[in-house]
Here is the input.
Amino acid sequence: MPDWNSTQELITDSTVFLKFMHALSGLYFWEFVTSLDFEWAFLTRQKRFHYPAIFYFLNRYCLLFTMIGLLIALDTPTEIDCQSLYTFNQIMGQSASGLASINLSIRTMALWSHNKFIVIPIIVIILGHWSLILQGVLVHASWVNGGCAVTGSNNTILAATFIYSMTFDLIILLLSMYKLVIGVKGGRSQLMTLLFKDGLVYFIIAFLANLLATVFIMLDLNAIMSVIFNVPAAIFSTIVACRAVRRLTNFSPKGPEVFSSTGHSFRVAAPATGTTNTLGMHPGKSLRGGKPDIGLEGAVQVQMQTFTVRDDQGSEYNADGDIQKSRVHDPEMGDADISADFKRPPY
Here is the structure.
């Protein structure tokens, strides 16, 4: 077991920290540049701007400025005010983590049709999260041997912030899963499948990254090792949250969907060429012997499932022979009641 506070160990940890931060910076800069087309679509008005996009852009640019500030602190050859720079990096980096959670929270609130019994508790949780994020100076740094070095940290508040983030993300995941899985009685649409997969992937990646950071904070090996995994947690949370936003905004169904009464769904492929009506017949074809004259080329094959209704369930006709009006269940909604604003992604 090494002496984590020895001079030699601190020099080694500083070297590892330096190289690790440069590698993470390259990763995030690559992610940032390759997704700039999303910003360009807003600037050229190809996409309509909605208020939730504010949190998306804040998330991206807060982390961008964090990584730039971190590289300045690590690579500058002249003496600077290291404490002020690290305070800026700390607040912006933790803000990026908080904004990543907000981006997923907005989706969940829309999924619940902005139900006040869901929205109000989520807002309270968000405020509690930010009360920890904006605690103040949690990382201490100074100019040592020709460069900025971390000299200490408030591990109690840092650990509380990461644990709060993990709990928050778990609550958001459970609320989303209830609407997208447990609360669905019909077939699940492609949009609902996308939301479920993105939410689950975000939670797994963010949870593991925050858990790793929390473990090293609680171990308190030395000042450097206590904060070495804080930056990866912010980076991975931001990347998966922003990708989830872009995937939702760019989502388009791959063909029409047909839902059965058993809850299964399948897609109906449209013909490559030609025009057909809803019966799959070519225009102008006649009915022969009560059967449609369907050509093989360009026709659409539709798979159907049939079911019977017991007599005790009632008929669609009343005693006078008139058709009774009944509520038609929309299987795509799956009792989730996704709002119109959500089906048109607010981003």
Notes: The chain is about 55% helix and 5% strand. The longest strand covers residues 147-153. The longest helix spans residues 82-111.
